[in-house]
Amino acid sequence: MTIHVLKNARLIDGTGAKPIERAVVAIENETILYAGNAEDWVPPEVKTIHELDLTGRTIMPGLIDCHVHIAAESLPDSTMAGPWGWSTLIMLKHAQNTLSAGVTTIRDVGGRHHLEFSLRKAVEAGMFVAPRMSLAGKLLSITTTGTEWYDGMYREADGVDEVRKATREQLKAGADLIKVLATGAVLSPGEKPGAATFEMEEIRAAVVEAAKVGKIVAAHAHGIEGIRNAVEAGAKTIEHGTYLREDVRVMERMAKEEIFLVPTLKAGYDVIYGDRPGIPDWIMEKSKETQEHAMASIRKAYQMGVPIAMGTDAATPYNFHGENAMELYYMSEAGISTMDCIVASTKNAARALGWDSKLGTLTAGKLADLIVVAKNPLDDLRSLADRKNIEYVMQGGKFVARQFNEPNGIPEELLAGAWICCGF
Q: Are residues 137 and 241 in the same domain?
């Protein structure tokens, strides 16, 4: 069996450790055999070695986005509707855009009519390439207007018994986690983000049912009362956490119990800034009301040691799949160090998913999910959102996307717009 060696690149391994300037990453089959200093690499004598010289580049783990909606289309009014067949094709395109942008794993926290499970099945059967997928199925909520705005995304459940049943339905469909709405939403008409929705006992019912099969609960929670309910009930991740800074004790508990904050700052930025025609006034107003609170909360949570995992909320209005890495830049603007932003999208994100035994860092024995970038992201996190900077994307030891630029490859103008991968 051939061992593939990526050599002479800078290595950012995702652990938060200082980069290694002259590194080797050795890959056998789908796993990492070695990642570290070139001087310490001893090639096995009985193996065939294939080397790829990556002088001047940086190797880092594939990015992990812990909060996406792969069936949503980034429409100005944020609605989800239309034929199911169209949604399936949209999901495939979004998956390819995301993978080619260096995001090798996603967690979908609200799909559409369980279509995302069919997409994952097709990917696992080898029909397509796409990010690894952790899927929640339908998100659980109280009876609300959101169900009319997002066709097939919500499962309304009122009371403990109905939440228990709804949770079991998602698990039966193949869910890796359960998503609950502990507060109102910015992007649902008639809802207030600060208002609690599910009672603590209802959220706990979901936590108990999920735990029976080793699954966790992610809680959409903007307002502090809803955050308190979710933390007390046993949720593992708090999505958004907009008003988290209002309760120091909750942050202390999250830090102590390793309850992750998934901030989704990009969703607000993509609504508020730039030319954004067609966005309803009520979405714009609620986004402006919450964004500064969200920035302040992540800053305070970071200072208090709350573990943070990257999530974008793609595809809210103008928040396109494939532009995920801009979230890291916005996190840095909130006060998180550049290296910790990378850790939030690699090691911490894998921990939040419960997949850290196989993903998140470039260490021996883990799956070879990595990206090769032309620029050092520690110099400019925005470079990770530049497709031309992402030279190679590897997943499970196979190159699944790459940039072809003259003079050493196929001219870009000769590539079809839908092209993503080589090696079929």
A: yes
